[in-house]
Amino acid sequence: MTSQKTRISFWQRLFDMVCPKACGVCGRRLGLNEEVLCGTCNLHLARTGHASHPTDNEMAKAFWGRISIEKAAALFHYQPQSQTARLIYNLKYHGHEDFGERMGEMTAREFDEKGFFEGIDGIIPVPLTKGRQRERGYNQSERIARGISHATGIPILDCIVVRKNFDGSQTDKHRWQRNENVENVFQLRPDQDISGKHLLVVDDIVTSGATVCACAKELQRAEDVRISVLSLGFTKT
Ligand SMILES: [Zn+2]
Fold first, then answer.
1. How far is the CA of 149 from the centre of ligand 1 (A)?
2. How far is ligand 1, taken at its centre, from the CA of residue 37, in Å?
3. Is 104 in contact with 143 (CB distance < 8 Å)?
C-alpha cells in the first residue's frame, strides 16, 4: 500500500512538473494539495452558504412563484467584474474544460457535508444548443455535472431535454435578448421516462433564473417530477 502511494505521488509530481495546474482565479501555479483554486482564492471565494438552508435562501426565493422547487444552492456570489468572473470565463472560453469538472467535484464535496444531495435521483445539465456546443467544444454545465456525479455517485441523465437551435438570423449583438428569450427552447424527449424522479438541474451561473425555469418547466411535464437546482455562481438581480 505504501509503495503504491509513493508511486502515485511520484507520477503526480512528474505530471505536475510537465503540466502544472494553475489557479482558476489568480492564475498562480497550484501546489500538489490544491485543487482548482489556490488556498488564498479558495479562502476569499464569496461563498453563499446556500447549502446550509437549501429550501429557503435568496436563490431558492428567485424561483418561488415561477416553478416548484425542492432545494437550490450556488457555491459563490458571482459578480461580472469580480475576480470570480475570470473563473467562469476560463470555464467557458479558455479551453480549460477540466475546470468545470473540478469545480463540480469541489462544490459537491462541500454540499454533500450538508446533506444537499439526499433524495436526488439524477443530474440534468442545462443543455446548450448543438451550434453553441460545437463552437465551444463542450458544455460547461455538463462538465460541472460530471464532477458532481464523480463525487456523489448520482448519475447524469443526459439527453433527457434537448435545446432547440436559435434562429440563425439572430446575431451576437442580440445575445442578451436571446438568452432571456428561453421560454420554449427546451424539449423533453418523449422516449425518456423520468416520472417520479427528483432531478438536480445544473447550470454554471444563475442570474435571472429564466434558463433554469424554462428547463425545469419542460422536465415537470413528466408526472411527479421534483426539481432542485445547483449552480456555481449566483448573481442577485
Ligand atoms: Zn488563486
1. 25
2. 5
3. yes
Angle, alpha carbons 60-230-199 (nearest 5°)? 95
Ligand 1 centroid vs 42 CA: distance in angstroms? 7
* 145 CA distance to ligand 1 middle (Å): 23
**Distance in angstroms (rounded) separating the CA atoms of residues 130 and 159:** 12
Ligand 1 center to 76 CA (angstroms): 15
Domain residue extents for the chain: 46-234
Q: What is the pLDDT along the chain (237 residues), one digit of tens a residue?
A: 444 444 557 666 666 666 668 888 888 888 888 888 999 999 999 999 999 999 999 999 999 999 999 999 999 999 888 878 888 887 777 667 788 999 999 999 999 999 999 999 999 999 988 888 888 888 999 999 999 999 999 999 988 998 887 644 444 445 445 455 677 889 998 888 899 999 999 999 999 999 999 999 999 999 999 999 999 999 987
Q: What CA–CA distance (Å, rounded) separates 103 from 48?
A: 15
Ligand 1 centroid – CA 59 distance (Å): 26
CA of 136 to the centre of ligand 1 (A): 25
Give CATH for domain 46-234.
3.40.50
CA of 55 to the centre of ligand 1 (A): 31
Separation of first and last alpha carbons in the chain:
52
Whole-prediction pTM: 0.86
